Amino acid sequence: MRLRRAVVLSSVLMIGLTLPAAATQPEKVIVLPGASSAEGIAAGHGSEFFAGDLLRGDIFRGDARRGKAELFIDAPDGRIAVGMTAELRHDLLFVAGGATGQAYVYDTRRRTTAATYQFVPANQGFINDVTLTRDGAWFTDSMNPQLYFVPLSHFGKLGPSKTLALSGPAADTSGSFNLNGINTTPDGRALIVAHSSNGQLYRVDARTGTSQLVAGVSVPGADGVARDGRTVWVVQGVNRVGGNPVTGQVDRVRLTADGTAGTHDKVITSTKFQTPATAAKLGNKLAVVNAKFDTGFPPTADRYEVVVTNS
Predict the structure, then answer these.
(1) Signal peptide: which range, if any (predicted)?
(2) Whose CA is closest to 53, among 280, 305, 310?
């Protein structure tokens, strides 16, 4: 019996040693049918995601597993869809409205507008991105040194917005495009904002507006910011490596729990990236939107898509 068991065990070990390593799953390119442009993305339930038509404001819903997307909300004329995030408990989608100075909240069950907010007059700000906390949604402004907060009760009721003036390095508006992506620190006690012109991440106290540099992290051209635990993905639409422009990348960063410091963990590149803008974590995958700003602004590409790659 002992000999037979030894032979069986030896055979199992040999089989395990000779089996090939599991192959990395290929990337998927999911077209947003009929989109005139693209920029924001938000994770939904499971492999579901929402993505926006930047210039028309329309919202698409896609499935990363099935590799398909379709028009979901035909937005009213005059709206813009930049960064977005989904609040799944009450089926709400928060969308930054760019140069309109607005933000929109959509009811994803009814495909209707739940609320519209006018943070600043049109063309006097650029409402760029949004993240959720336990109490509501925070929006960035790429032209003004302030954040905007929309409260959300535990029952799903939206309240009037508030403006938070910033101080410290995050309040720098000397660049052509300043605050951009936003998320929460891993411990949930503060906010992390990306500054495109400075190529930095800043930690912001949501009570006082004071900010500080996230030490050890440099992210030139930082755009959208996705987070899962202490891991943060910062999308860089156009980065230059060795003086040669590349099609964009995603920098993976490991943060301390309080978000005061971080270390670079990995650079994610793809031949399918074309000036990506934002990303959403879907399980062990990363869904990245190709904004294609390298074609100009407004962009002039024939199609716009989401690239689903390994995170």
Answers:
(1) 1-23
(2) 305
Peptide bond into 299 cis (omega under 30): no
Nearest to 227 by CA among 195, 271, 262, 199: 262
Cα 256–chain centre separation:
20
The helix (H) or strand (E) run that includes residue 30 is: strand 28-31
**Is residue 116 a contact partner of residue 57, using CB atoms and an 8 Å limit?**
no
Characterise 46 by phi-psi region: left (phi > 0), alpha (psi -120 to 50), beta (else): left
User: What is this structure's pTM?
Assistant: 0.90
What count of Cα atoms within 13 Å lies in the side-chain half-sphere of residue 175? 20
94: helix, strand or coil: strand
* CA 107 distance to own-chain centroid: 20
Task: Answer for the pair 38, 304: CB distance below 8 angstroms, yes or no.
Answer: yes
Are 80 and 95 a contacting pair, CB within 8 Å?
A: no
Q: Kindly report the number of other CB atoms within 10 A of residue 122's CB atom.
A: 13
Which residues, other chains included, contact 259 with Cβ-Cβ below 8 Å and sequence gap of 6+? 185, 186, 187, 190, 192, 203, 214
- Both structure tokens of 36: 């005139």
Instruction: Give the DSSP H/E element, type plus range, for residue 137.
Output: strand 136-141
Alpha-carbon distances, residue 295 vs 31, 42, 264, 300 (angstroms) = 17, 24, 30, 6
Domains of the chain plus CATH, in order, are 28-310 (2.120.10.30)
Q: What is the pLDDT of residues 132-190, one digit of tens each?
A: 999 999 999 999 999 999 999 999 999 999 999 999 999 999 999 999 999 999 999 99
